[in-house]
Amino acid sequence: MDGNAIAILGGTGDQGLGLALRFTRAGRPVVIGSRKLERAEEAARKVRQAVPEAEVEGLANEQAATRASTVFLSVPFEHFAATLKSIREKLVAGQVVVSMGVPLATAVGDAAVRTVGIWQGSCAELVAALVPPGVEVVSAFQNVSAHRLQDLAGEVECDVVVSGAKPARRRVMQLCDLVPGLRGIDGGPLANARIVEQMTALLIGLNARYGVPEGLGIRFTGLPPS
Ligand SMILES: NC(=O)c1ccc[n+]([C@@H]2O[C@H](COP(=O)([O-])OP(=O)(O)OC[C@H]3O[C@@H](n4cnc5c(N)ncnc54)[C@H](OP(=O)(O)O)[C@@H]3O)[C@@H](O)[C@H]2O)c1
After folding, report:
1. CA dihedral (152, 220, 144, 8) positive or negative
2. DSSP state, residue 154
3. Long-range contacts (CB closer than 8 Å, 24 or more residues apart) made by 85-90
4. Could you give the angle at the alpha carbon of 209 between the alpha carbons of 204 and 212, nearest 5°?
5. Contact between residue 138 and residue 195 where contact means Cβ atoms under 8 Å apart
6. How far is the CA of 221 from the centre of ligand 1 (A)?
7. Strand partners of residue 182
8. Residue 60: beta bridge partners?
9. The pLDDT of residue 3 is above 90
10. Ligand 1: which atom is nearest the Cα of residue 101?
11. How crowded is the C-beta side of 216, counted as CA atoms within 13 Å?
C-alpha cells in the first residue's frame, strides 16, 4: 500500500474523475476504481490524456481499495452500502475512507434540492457504521462542483469543510490544499457532516435560481490565516 496514493472508488463518475485530474496534476499517484475493470482503465486513460505526467491506474474497486491509505467513496449515497460491502474485507486499520455523499432525494425519485433522512444521521456516519474497526471515516468535498474540478484551466473557488477524527481529517485537509482555489476548513467531529451534506441541496437550488450550471462554491470569511 502506497501512503502517498489516493484511491477513488467510482472514479469513473463526474466527481471522482474531477478529483483524479486534480490530484494527479498535483503529483499524487491515483488509483481509479470501478465495478468494471474496463471502465476504470478507460477513466485512467482520460486522466492521462488531460494530465500527461499523471501517475494513474484503473482497477476494480476491490483491488483499488488495497492500494492507497486514503480511499474516496465516489458513488451516489444510495450505493454506499453495496460498494462498502464489496470492499469491506479489503480495508485495514489505519486507512482513511472519505465520504462525499449527499442524501439527495433523487434517490427516492424526488428533487435534488431536497434530502432524505438517514438513520445514522448523515452519509458519512452511515459509512462509519459499515467500515471495519480501525478504519477512519472523514467527511469532505460535498460542496465542491465536479464541473469545476474537471476544468483544469480554472481554480476551484470553494472552501471544503472536513470532519472526522483529528489526524484523519488533517490528512484530508492537506489533500484540499493540493487543488488550486480549494481550502480545507477544520470541520470538527464527523457528526458535523449532517450540516455540510444538507448544504449541497441548497447549493443545487442556488445553481438553478442563479443560472450557474458550473456550480457555485462556498467561502467562510474572517478565518485567521493558517
Ligand atoms: N457531481 C457533483 O458535482 C458532486 C458534488 C459534490 C459531491 N458529490 C458526491 O460525489 C459522489 C459521486 O458523485 P458523482 O456525481 O460522480 O456520481 P455518478 O457520476 O452518478 O456515479 C459515480 C460512480 O458510481 C458508480 N455507480 C453507479 N451506480 C452504481 C451502483 N448501482 N452501485 C455501485 N456503484 C455505482 C459508477 O461507477 P462504476 O460503474 O464505474 O462502478 C459511477 O461512475 C456522490 O456521493 C456525490 O454525492 C458529487
Report:
1. positive
2. S
3. 85/130, 86/35, 86/61, 86/62, 87/9, 87/61, 87/62, 88/130, 88/131, 88/132, 89/132, 90/62, 90/65, 90/66
4. 70
5. no
6. 31
7. 158
8. 34
9. no
10. 45
11. 16
Distances (CA, A) of 159 to 10, 29, 140, 207: 23, 23, 10, 17
Cα–Cα distance between 39 and 164 in angstroms, integer? 31
| Residue owning the nearest CA to atom 5 of ligand 1 | 145
Do 164 and 173 touch, CB atoms closer than 8 A?
no
Distance 12 CA to ligand 1 centre (A): 8
Q: Where does ligand 1 bind, in terms of residues with CB under 6 Å?
A: 10, 12-16, 34-36, 39, 74-77, 79, 82-83, 100-102, 141-142, 144-146, 200
- The C-alpha cell of 62 is what? 476491490
Cell of 131: 467500515
Amino acid identity at 158: C
Q: DSSP string covering 183-197, please?
A: EEEE--SGGGHHHHH
Per-residue pLDDT band at 176 (split at 50, 70, 90): very high
Say what the pTM is: 0.97
pLDDT in tens, 27-37: 999 999 999 99
Distance CA 162, CA 148 (A): 19
